[in-house]
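Renewal narrative, Specific Aim 1. Our central claim is that a sequence can be written position by position from structural information alone. The example that follows is taken directly from our test logs and has not been curated for this report. It begins with the structure tokens describing the chain, in the order in which they were read.
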């Protein structure tokens, strides 16, 4: 609802400017860009309308401020006067007005809960709600560190022990199939944070450690019994009387969506050219972080732009496609690769462009609703990608071709404006030669006259020609990602062609 919606960013004059749904961007008036908003917030103008006072807001009072020219919205217990922001909201005034005079937390969470509205709207803060309208549901552990069955039928417990040189924290989840992607551990200064993902819930161990530890940590997972060991190296070989001081969310088991985003600083170790406007950024995780981004999920990058925190999503890729003639390099869990298109008018990507090797950038925990099991159950996989919508397809291709034995065909239909825009064209062509199950088709919307391949944009006829079951009853999965209008049109065409909702996965924020 607030800030910059991630899913569409039409270039001036592009068809993308035609908003296909409430969530697409609407054309903003000149002088109403993100940078203009940031400038206004720094101008000293009274944006809350209360001349710097903060007030306690009752529900009745909030409800009175429900007009465009006087619009208050509550998010997570804080009330903002969003009237000055209306014209700057990339999703448009109407979308913002859906929450006018009410608690917009749920609506906000549905659309983009990751947006740092606190920073974007800090000058619009009116005050707190008199009675906090939402309380995050928390499953608290008992003193012994055991969580009984709560909203889900799970039993979680943790324990810790020490040797002269090590501290080991053991988390027992009793979940089968726990794997490295479901365990996220960070240790910054003396703050240890270990998160275990169980379906749409998350369990957290979060303590301020009793003593300092060394930077590198180890995580061991015993998948069959769902046991996680976090092994820390003591700085000094002294006996610890306790693990540490519990932090606010220690021992809680709550819905993932109720946890705030957590960021760690990653070092940019290389930036290489992919095309004229797209680069591959290699970020190195701190030694004190254990994080694997699952196939089909994205992370958020956070940067301070002109004094304001701005957050955008990016989908990690691999350093290259699964071509066995390449040596595996940093494909090791310690690095995150991002393929990012730099827009000349895009504040966030312009700031990324100026990032130097050796600089740091904040990277969030992964998010996304794609499940590998969707691919494991299919015989034919169709990937429809437009522009950087190719990014989720990279890990998907790797997973499908290297780990899913029942797949008969994997076809990528890749839409771009020109030949120069095609990402990893060589690698894709080589992969098609190497693996007979894989086929790639390039479709250009603005080709030069010597282009011999397919032309146009996504259409029913292109899709009916390309997306075909290899046999009458074969199980298919069709994944689609690109600019919002591309994805929305594609999904509609596929449904019109008779494919069911379960057979289609659209990547969105
Ligand atoms: P923006 O401010 O978004 O501007 C981009 C362009 O759109 C500019 O030309 C600008 O002039 C124009 N524009 C901006 N606002 C408007 C408006 N209201 N009306 C008309 N035109 C406008 N991108 C990648 O490159 N790689 C990825 O791996 C990737 N993964 C993503 C994953 C997800 C889940 C999502 C939702 C998006 C992903 N994106 C990815 C897109 C990315 O998040 C950013 O949107 C993108 O980098 C642009 O950010 P920006 O601030 O630089 O540009
Ligand atoms: P682009 O502007 O270069 O366009 C690439 C192709 O997309 C075009 O050639 C055309 O075939 C198609 N296209 C563009 N606008 C269209 C429209 N209005 N209708 C139908 N087809 C259209 O693309 P880009 O600049 O690389 O943008 C990629 C988009 O993918 C961004 O919007 C980005 O947010 C999105 N993306 C989303 C995710 C995700 O949700 N997980 C991941 C990566 C990228």
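The sequence written for that structure reads:
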């Amino acid at each position: 609802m607030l800030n910059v919606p991630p899913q569409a960013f039409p270039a001036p004059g592009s068809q993308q400017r035609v908003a296909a749904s409430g969530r697409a961007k609407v054309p903003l008036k000149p002088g109403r860009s993100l940078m203009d908003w940031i400038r206004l917030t720094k101008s000293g103008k009274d944006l809350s309308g209360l001349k710097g006072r903060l007030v306690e807001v009752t529900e009745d009072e909030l409800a009175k401020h429900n007009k465009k020219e006087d619009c208050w919205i509550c998010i997570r217990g804080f009330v903002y006067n969003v009237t000055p922001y209306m014209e700057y909201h990339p999703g448009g005034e109407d979308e913002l007005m859906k929450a006018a005079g009410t608690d917009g937390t749920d609506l906000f969470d549905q659309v983009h809960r990751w947006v740092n509205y606190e920073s974007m709207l800090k000058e619009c803060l009116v005050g707190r709600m008199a009675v906090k309208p939402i309380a995050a549901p928390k499953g608290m552990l008992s003193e012994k560190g055991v969580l009984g069955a709560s909203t889900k039928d799970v039993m979680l417990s943790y324990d810790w022990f020490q040797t002269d040189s090590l501290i080991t924290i053991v988390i027992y989840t009793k979940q089968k199939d726990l794997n490295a992607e479901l365990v996220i551990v960070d240790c910054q200064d003396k703050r240890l944070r270990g998160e275990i993902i169980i379906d749409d819930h998350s369990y957290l161990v979060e303590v301020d450690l009793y003593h300092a530890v060394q930077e590198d940590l180890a995580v061991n997972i015993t998948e069959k019994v769902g046991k996680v060991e976090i092994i820390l190296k003591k700085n000094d070989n002294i006996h610890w009387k306790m693990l540490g001081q519990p932090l606010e969310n220690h021992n809680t088991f709550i819905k993932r969506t109720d946890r705030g985003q957590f960021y760690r600083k990653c070092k940019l170790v290389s930036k290489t050219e992919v095309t004229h406007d797209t680069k591959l950024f290699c970020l190195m995780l701190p030694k004190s972080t254990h994080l694997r981004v699952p196939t089909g999920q994205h992370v958020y990058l956070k940067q301070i732009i002109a004094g304001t925190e701005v957050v955008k999503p990016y989908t990690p890729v691999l350093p290259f496609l699964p071509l066995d003639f390449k040596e595996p390099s940093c494909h090791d869990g310690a690095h995150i690769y991002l393929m990012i298109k730099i827009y000349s008018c895009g504040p966030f990507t312009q700031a990324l462009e100026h990032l130097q090797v050796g600089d740091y950038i904040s990277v969030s925990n992964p998010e996304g609703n794609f499940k590998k099991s969707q691919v494991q159950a299919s015989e034919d996989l169709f990937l429809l990608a437009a522009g950087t919508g190719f990014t989720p397809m990279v890990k998907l291709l790797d997973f499908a071709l290297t780990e899913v034995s029942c797949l008969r065909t994997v076809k990528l239909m890749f839409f771009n404006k020109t030949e120069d825009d095609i990402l990893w064209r060589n690698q894709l062509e080589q992969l098609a030669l190497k693996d007979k199950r894989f086929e790639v088709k390039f479709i250009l919307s603005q080709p030069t006259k010597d282009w011999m391949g397919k032309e146009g944009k996504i259409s029913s006829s292109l899709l009916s020609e390309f997306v075909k079951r290899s046999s009458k009853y074969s199980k298919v999965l069709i994944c689609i990602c690109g600019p919002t209008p591309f994805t929305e049109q594609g999904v509609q065409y596929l449904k019109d062609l008779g494919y069911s909702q379960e057979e289609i996965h659209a990547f969105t924020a």
